[in-house]
Amino acid sequence: MSSDDAGFKVALEEAKQGAKEGGIPIGACLVNKDGKILGRGHNMRLQKNSATLHAEISTLENAGRLPASAYQGATMYTTLSPCNMCTGACILYKVSRVVMGENKTLVGGEDFLTQRGIEVVNLKNAECEGLMKKFISEHPDDWLVLMRG
Amino acid sequence: MSSDDAGFKVALEEAKQGAKEGGIPIGACLVNKDGKILGRGHNMRLQKNSATLHAEISTLENAGRLPASAYQGATMYTTLSPCNMCTGACILYKVSRVVMGENKTLVGGEDFLTQRGIEVVNLKNAECEGLMKKFISEHPDDWLVLMRG
Predict the structure, then answer these.
(1) pLDDT one-digit tens code per residue, B59-118
(2) Which residues have CB under 8 Å from A97's CB, separation 6+?
(3) Strand pairing partners for A41?
(4) Which residues have a Cβ under 8 Å from the Cβ of B28 and sit 6 or more positions away?
(5) How close is the nearest chain B Cα to the Cα of A143, in Å?
(6) Residue B149: its pLDDT value, please?
């Protein structure tokens, strides 16, 4: 598992697309056990005034309504450690693995994923971290309002 | 706290609206500490082919993009015990209380809510249970596909 992995590359493309749109630059991609992309998406909080369209939720939403079996053995790639909501979504759909770009910006529900038997991989990718660092320095209020109200 | 509580009545109305639309009859309502309704919604899995618009997610989405402070002291009313995704969403936004109609149909992330200091109330409401029983008996496949793939 490296940052060259196709699923991760798509998640990173999505994060960059979010940045282009002036949004919070977090992207995700859901890949099934056969390597097929089921969905991809990015955080739409600012673009759609959305409280729930985080990158992983956008991705699951874009994948559409699938039977539970479709998620068996799937990997959720995300450029940032998943928050509690997105962690819960990965547990709900019983994905097998979560691969994150980084967790320096935020540590989400990694422990909870591990407790539920979901493999967690951190790529410690500098590009993902850089995207978030740039966003937070340019839009501190849009980030801090999430963190402390 | 009883089934006459205004927030719960709205959640139940939402569940019934979902039933009318042929959807999974689960409704929710988010009420802030001053008793103001911030959002309301119902499960849209069938209506929108949505993997993420559970009742609580629809409700948070309909409430729009709010600062974290808006959720302080808030109560999430839902007609059914919240799944892991919706549990995670309540933890993300740090609502103070989750009031559910019933948990006979499904026991979601109640323990996790309690561990995180969120008060959990179960109204054991027969009407909520009846709505789900009717839906599952009439559309067993649409429910079981969620449970076992």
Answers:
(1) 999 999 999 999 999 999 999 999 999 999 999 999 999 999 999 999 999 999 999 999
(2) A74, A75, A76, A118, A119, A120, A121
(3) A28
(4) B11, B14, B40, B41, B42, B55, B56, B58, B59, B76, B77, B78, B79
(5) 10
(6) 40
Sheet containing A75-78: give its strands across. Answer: A37-42, A27-31, A75-78, A97-100, A119-122
Among B92, B113, B115, B142, pick the best mutation site for testing chain A contact (most A Cβ within 10 A). Answer: B92
User: A89 vs B93: CB contact, 8 Å cut-off?
Assistant: no
Nearest chain B residue to A147 by CA distance is B68
- Residue A102 is given by DSSP the state -
What is the H or E stretch that residue A132 is in? Answer: helix A126-138
Are A120 and A146 spatial neighbours (Cβ–Cβ below 8 Å)? no
What confidence score (pLDDT) does residue B147 get? 60
In which residue are the tokens 């409704």 written? Answer: B27
pLDDT for res A149? 40
pTM (predicted TM-score) = 0.95
